[in-house]
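so my prof wants the structure for this chain in the tokens format not the other one, which i didnt know existed until like an hour ago. anyway here's the sequence
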Amino acid sequence: MIVVVIAVVAKPDRTVAAPDGRGDGVAATPPAARTIDIPTSGWKPGGMSLTALTSGVLRATPEGCPYLGQRDPRSAGSRTPLVWPAGYTARYANDKTIEVLAPNGAVVAREGADLSAGGGLIPLSQQHPCTFGDTDAFVIMEDLTR
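here's what i got, hopefully its the right format
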């Protein structure tokens, strides 16, 4: 049995310095957020992994959640929630599409582009907004930078 724990990383608040130079604990308004909170697992390259292969097109909901969709956008079909390896992040690119980045900053997936990845469909132990309430998600267990 493999248990998947989805990590939700909280972004630290910035504090505003008081006139005496000390932080007063009041959170400053961050600049317009360009990052997207995506579900990640604890899997890292070199770790034990499942060997199923999935492929499709990386698509995103209006809220910015990346998922694996069918190649023909006119097809009514499934959307497969994805759980990304540890340290992966997502952002809005300049053209407002979604990009997924590896921990080294390399863009490994773009909205609208084909995506093939190894891993496996696994029951979720925790929910995340980008898993759409599904009970299973495809957990990517592959170094996508290669």
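also thought this was worth mentioning. The radius of gyration is 17 Å.
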